[in-house]
Amino acid sequence: MPIENTLSIIKPDATKRNLTGLINAKFEKAGLKIIAQKRLQLSEDMAQKFYEVHKDRPFYNDLVSFMTSGPVVVQVLSGNNAVKLNRDIMGATNPEEADAGTIRKEFAESIEANSVHGSDSLENANLEIAFFFAAVELFS
Ligand code: IDP
Ligand code: MG
After folding, report:
1. pTM exceeds 0.85
2. Helix (H) or strand (E) holding 36
3. Which of 51, 60, 120, 132 is deepest in the core (most CB within 10 A)?
């Protein structure tokens, strides 16, 4: 299986509740390696750009407010099939539809405050990693 890198974000609802370690334990237990990581406060401009694909959706403005409401942890996860594996560990967008044992089932507060972001394709993973990290910041 191919080694891939994917972008993960621990969202403000989770950093506020001190869940960074519990969430990352699930990634590490599944074999994903954290090869880059930083905690930061997103500006409104960064959040708008990051979620630009959703700019016409009714929840866009709320989503930008939520993502700037506290610190986030942005990180690069690496491993076999990392893009899909990360999405599987995260669970469905709506925690009510997420499988047992997934991060969103266990920790999400709502469909918006759903604790984690994960890239949805290898192409988007590369774009999203470049949005936050310089190539020299990735451990290889
Ligand atoms: P994903 O995070 O599972 O890939 P997307 O459809 O890409 O889901 O949506 C991006 C983010 O926008 C979600 O993780 C969630 O925080 C928020 N979101 C998605 N759908 C809704 C909604 O119907 N109401 C409020 N927020 C939503
Ligand atoms: Mg998405």
Report:
1. yes
2. strand 33-40
3. 132
Q: Is 30 in the pocket of ligand 1 (CB under 6 A)?
A: no
Predicted local distance difference test score (pLDDT) of residue 140:
80
Instruction: Tell me, using a 6 A CB cutoff, whether residue 131 lines ligand 1.
Output: no
Structure tokens at 126: 């590369």
Query: Which sign, positive or negative, has the C-alpha torsion 69, 55, 86, 89?
Result: positive
Instruction: Work out which ligand 1 atom sits closest to the CA atom of 117.
Output: 2
Nearest-atom number in ligand 1 for the CA of 66 is 16
Exposure b/e, 115-137, CB count within 10 A at least 16 = b:
bbbbbeebeebeebbeebbeeee
Question: Is the Cα torsion angle 106, 111, 113, 117 positive or negative in sign?
Answer: positive
What tens digit of pLDDT does each residue of 2-24 get? 999 999 999 999 999 999 999 99
Residues carrying an active site annotation? 117
